[in-house]
Amino acid sequence: NAGVTQTPKFQVLKTGQSMTLQCAQDMNHEYMSWYRQDPGMGLRLIHYSVGAGITDQGEVPNGYNVSRSTTEDFPLRLLSAAPSQTSVYFCASSYSVAGGYEQFFGPGTRLTVL
Amino acid sequence: AQTVTQSQPEMSVQEAETVTLSCTYDTSESDYYLFWYKQPPSRQMILVIRQEAYKQQNATENRFSVNFQKAAKSFSLKISDSQLGDAAMYFCAYRSGNNNDMRFGAGTRLTVKP
């Protein structure tokens, strides 16, 4: 099993550009989520999905879109990048929403918006 | 909304000694789960230990144990016989048992001195 994979590992964008961060898991997990990590603030939930075709907003959703067309993939889209979106982005998955199932994290994507 | 507070931005411990990292949380829910995650310089998030709120017994995983004080809303992590490989950022996290909310603390950077 590859676990949770994310691409790219690093990305530099100019203000106003768009891009998609890719996330995939091969564990047949129901629940997937995106977080951003900023210095001194821990991880904050951006969007999550409880299954294919179902997504919802987390704590900091503005400026990001997601979709979940398959169980395996959960891409995060930045439609018009802003410097405030400079951060490290983590994708995570877990077996289920209910219960305290462990979340497995991808290796992260470091995004810089100039 | 639930909040998680880690009041120690940095901690240090001598190799082979014991260290305790603090975490408090605020919630009105009765069903929830608490976690400690480790983030080494590789950036990978690794689950250290998990505690179900309905369990009175403190969780233990080898050299890692927690002191879960539900009434005080406190969830500290004790690392015994500290090793150089324990050096990392440690994040306390809260996951609601009723919805998809997951909150992280700001983290504690642990240094292990040889």
Summarize the structure in words:
The complex is a heterodimer of chains A (114) and B (114). Chain A has 114 residues and is mainly beta. Helix content of chain A is 0%, strand content 49%. Chain A is built from no helices and 11 strands. In chain A, strands 2, 4, 5, 6, 9, 10 and 11 form a 7-stranded mixed β-sheet that branches. In chain A, β4 and β5 form a beta hairpin. Chain A is globular and about 40 Å long. The mean pLDDT of chain A is 93. Chain B has 114 residues and is mostly beta strands. Chain B is globular and about 45 Å long. The model of chain B has no long low-confidence stretch (mean pLDDT 94). At the A-B interface, β4, β5 and β9 of A face β6, β10 and β11 of B.
Please specify the SSE layout and strand pairing.
The complex is a heterodimer of chains A (114) and B (114).
Chain A: E1 4-7, E2 10-13, E3 19-25, E4 31-37, E5 43-51, E6 54-57, E7 64-66, E8 76-78, E9 87-94, E10 104-105, E11 109-113
Parallel strand pairs in A: 2-11
Antiparallel strand pairs in A: 1-3, 3-8, 4-5, 4-9, 5-6, 7-8, 9-10, 9-11
Chain B: E1 3-5, E2 10-14, E3 19-21, E4 24-26, E5 32-39, E6 46-52, E7 60-61, E8 64-69, E9 74-79, E10 88-96, E11 102-104, E12 108-113
Parallel strand pairs in B: 2-12
Antiparallel strand pairs in B: 1-4, 3-9, 5-6, 5-10, 7-8, 8-9, 10-11, 10-12
What labels describe this entry?
heterodimer, A: mainly beta, 49% strand, B: 114 residues, mainly beta, four-stranded antiparallel sheet, globular
Q: Would you kindly provide a brief summary of this structure?
A:
With 114 residues, chain A is an all-beta fold. Chain A has strands at 4-7, 10-13, 19-25, 31-37, 43-51, 54-57, 64-66, 76-78, 87-94, 104-105, 109-113.
Q: From the alpha-carbon coordinates, what is the Rg of chain A to the nearest angstrom?
A: 13 Å
How many strand segments of chain B?
12
| Major sheet characteristics of chain A | 7 strands, mixed
Q: State the helical fraction of chain A.
A: under 10%
End-to-end Cα distance of chain A, whole Å, is 36 Å
The secondary-structure class of chain A comes to: mainly beta
Count of helical segments of chain B?
0
The oligomeric state of the chains shown is heterodimer
Per DSSP, the total helix count of chain A is: 0
Instruction: Tell me what portion of residues of chain B adopts beta-strand conformation.
Output: over 45%
Q: Which term fits the overall shape of chain B?
A: globular
Task: Work out the largest interface and the residue count of each chain.
Answer: A-B, 26 and 25 residues
Number of strands of chain A: 11
CA radius of gyration of chain B is 14 Å
Output the helix-strand order of chain A.
Answer: EEEEEEEEEEE
Query: What average pLDDT do the residues of chain A reach?
Result: 93
The main pleated sheet of chain B reads as: 6 strands, mixed
Globally, the shape of chain A reads globular
- Share of residues in helices of chain B: under 10%
